[in-house]
Amino acid sequence: MIATFIQVEEKLEAGQGKTTIRRFFSRFCTPIFLESFILTFLAEWGDRSQIATIALATHKNAIGVAVGATIGHTICTSLAVVGGSMLASKISQRTVATVGGLLFLGFSLSSYFYPPL
After folding, report:
1. Which residues cross the membrane (predicted)?
2. The dihedral sign for the CA sequence 110, 112, 116, 117
């Protein structure tokens, strides 16, 4: 055990520890990972499901709510990724972006002409 600590200390003094840590983070934190994490985090922040999860956690077991919400979100996101991958093999990205843009335009016009009751 002491020999292990001495080996780690020698590696840190030689500067090898920082290189190992950088290699780990450069493999884990790829640009696509960071982009998908930030987009998902910002999109989900303050939405209805988060508010419902907060309300549920105030009355029920918080750990159970956290685990259930995490598993549910993981499954939902995984289905979106698999579905997007399958869709990308059939339809071009430009078509998906155009249809998505038209849908959002339609929703905005609907909200403008038919305000909520």
Report:
1. 24-43, 63-83, 95-114
2. negative
